Amino acid sequence: MSLPLASPAARPAVGLDLGGTQVRAALVAPDGRLLARAATRTDVSGGPRAVVEQMRRLVDDVTAGQPRHGLAGIGVCAPGPLDSAEGMVLGIPTLPGWTDVPLTAWLQEALELPVRLENDGVGAALGEWRYGAGRGLSDFVYVTVSTGIGGGVVSDGRLLRGRRRLAAHIGHMTVVPDGPLCPCGNSGCWEAVASGSALGRRAREAAAAEPSGRLAELAHALAGGADAAVLVRAARDGDAAAGRLIDEEASALGLGIVNLLHLFSPQRVVLGGGVAQAFDLLQAGIAREIDKRAMPPFRDVPVVAASCGQDAGLVGAAALILAPPEPPTGAGSAHG
């Protein structure tokens, strides 16, 4: 049974962000400030029910001393595809067993609070629209570059939804026909070419090819192997091989962004996610790709770093309750 979404008034909400590596939670004030946060490693092997229990415990952690009736509700961002209107996870390629999971209903049962569910990229876009780099804009595109690539689109002052609210799976544009295999099963998706996972794969290949280089040295010193974060650090240290890979990443990101400019004609493109922590290294290469490929009327659209940074998903999840993009669904259906 669906719980009614009460007016948030001055009450905070909890934002939950489900990822393949971590589940994160935050208590968020109505103005978007994070009041408390907690995280735990995602219990992938335990399956959806175990992760819901993790979420319940995280909510308890961030609301310690806060009575449940003092909360406006719970917003959840998760990878897709999902049907946010029905509160249903349809399938997450990176999380085995997450097929046709009624996540909203399970969480409402566990927490006895209204719950709304949204795709993680769309949720982060909502956070940036309400509280960050997209605030006050009627048209903008948010791109998150992390393990995968996701995003959300605001067009004519409305969050773009599409059939079953499945719009804006921007990471699955095909940008390199017959390119690398994507977790979705297609080849050459933007995600397969330009995500943090793809960048990490190239970093490992480069470290193996040049074992005496700075990239391999850092990977060994940090004992975690070469990944995107190690690559960025090596590039900042002046490693030539790492610098070339950063330039390739910037070009790959720019290629996808050009497509987004032509499709949605935004006022601004906002780049977030883990890889965006290297935005200062990527910005010039992205701009070159836009100048090279975009039609002239689209070339002056600014590409900027997300203001909410790594917290965009948490803030956006809470914004589903505190500042929803549209009125809650009516009685008789799960809030999403």
TrEMBL record:
- Which Pfam families does UniProt cross-reference here? ROK
By its UniProt entry, which InterPro entries does this protein fall under?
Answer: ATPase_NBD, ROK, ROK_cs
Which family does the similarity line name?
Belongs to the ROK (NagC/XylR) family.
Protein's UniProt name = ROK family protein
* Native source species: Pseudaquabacterium rugosum
Taxonomic lineage from the root: Bacteria, Pseudomonadati, Pseudomonadota, Betaproteobacteria, Burkholderiales
